[in-house]
What we know:
By secondary structure, this protein is of the alpha/beta class. It folds into three domains: 2-186, Methylglyoxal synthase-like domain (Rossmann fold, 3-Layer(aba) Sandwich), CATH 3.40.50.1380; 226-344, Cytidine Deaminase, domain 2 (3-Layer(aba) Sandwich); 374-496, Cytidine Deaminase, domain 2 (3-Layer(aba) Sandwich). It is built from 18 helices and 21 strands. It has helices at residues 14-23, 32-40, 48-52, 67-74, 79-87, 103-109, 114-119, 124-134, 148-151, 161-186, 241-255, 279-289, 307-313, 328-334, 391-402, 428-439, 458-465, 480-490; strands at 2-8, 27-30, 46-47, 92-99, 140-142, 201-202, 220-221, 232-235, 261-266, 269-275, 297-305, 318-326, 341-344, 354-358, 361-365, 378-381, 410-414, 417-422, 447-450, 470-473, 493-496. Strands 8-13-12-11-9-10 form a six-stranded mixed β-sheet. A six-stranded mixed β-sheet has the order 16-21-20-19-17-18. A five-stranded parallel β-sheet has the order 3-2-1-4-5, sandwiched between helices. Strand 11 (297-305), helix 13 and strand 12 (318-326) form a beta-alpha-beta unit. The protein is elongated and about 95 Å long. The termini are far apart.
Amino acid sequence: MQWALISVTDKTGVDTLAHGLKAQGYGILASGGTARYLQGAGVEVRRLEDLTGFEALLEGRVKTLHPVVYAGILSQETEKDRADRESVKAPEISVVVVNLYDFESTLAHHPEDPQAVIEAIDIGGVSLIRAAAKNFARVVVATHPDQYGELLERPLTDWTVAQRRAYAAKAFQHMAYYDAMIGNALAPAGEWGTYVTIAGKAESAPLRYGENPHQRAGWYRLPAGRGFAQGKLLQGKPLSYNNVLDAEAAWQVALELPDGAVVAVKHQIPCGVALGRTALESYLKVLESDPVSIFGGIVAVKGKVEEDLATSLIETFLEVVIAVEFTPQALNIFRQKKNLRVLEMPSDGHRPFELRMISGGFLVQEPDRLIRPIQEFRHLAGPALEAGSKILADVQLAWTTVAHVRSNAIVIARRGHTVGIGGGETNRIDAARHALERAGERAQGAVLASDGFFPFGDVVAEAAKYGVAVVVEPGGALRDRESVAAAEQAGVTLLFSDERHFRH
């Protein structure tokens, strides 16, 4: 007789599966709680403990690790293997159905309990899956209830080697995810050694396509994913690949600003950022910042969206609105725009690392962050800024925003909102001219921030023509003196941050 070995943590559908495998002529082997569960469901089961002659040891940590079990799984269809298997009275195990201890859930709910996390590391289940997957030419291995239906569609004896191999590949990928999750959880935070493992689990609803319709795409969550992974889509169509990227970009800017801030993003670049006395005032300032680029964009609100703000938001075509909270009245207003995606986000933008693919590998880095407070910026030229002056808020807004704009990046802010943004240029003077032209007369008395240093004095001189009052840049160029001289001549306040924020 051929046997199916079943040992599962998740009992979903396993009774139906066992009955179906019995109908195909398989005997059922099961261990511990799985055996008791199946017996309760009316399935005739042979206990694994009866086969091995050992009850579970070490509070269940050792129960399937036995030569008789692995001889039954790993034996191949050769005369020698058959003789070896029969010599230890091992059954011919042709189906292995195992799912593992739920390490991911334990990690999410008990991250501060190291003993609970350690006990959630599966040993026996991983070994069973690996053995069965290795011997896929003879053994079918399944690791998830979603696979049970296919196991019962037709007799497993009719499965081709290619079909068995495909299931084996899924099993190895499942274990790779599981092991990477454990390795990353146990490693010191932010430490990268010789090996970097990325564990991702596909979203239940796949993305329709990538940046363009001819590109395939998927969305994968990190284990116990925080930040954007915890967002809830309250209404609207599923998020697209571009929606996810733009929404994440908008939310990352918003999280660095005080409550009530509003951020608009188009193609991952901020096109309007503002901080008013209320979220509605902030949004109206964002609209004023760039009423053209916001069309079809993403808006993120650092706080609650109430009825008045919702009423204003639906007047412009937007792809996504993001906020920490929405009132019932606001949600009711959004229903007038059924295609508008409304995304509720936690006040958490945790990103353990940033990853960029290159041919043959990938690059990993820590996320960028603002390090030095603006009070510590060096004053090089022009009038000193008094502590508590209103323009300091614009310095903070411009500096925070420019760190999220593609390099070369220039941001101009005035009276609590951005008035000109230039980014993604191949030289800094073009980025400055782009931002200044957008700002126009609004640049008078404004703050201009640059993500990188000025190689020449031309940016300061150009800013002075438009009446910019304060310029912030990292400093550190060989010809910094030219920028200092241009600021002194024009009476422009020049601040060096001594930190750059390139975003390539």
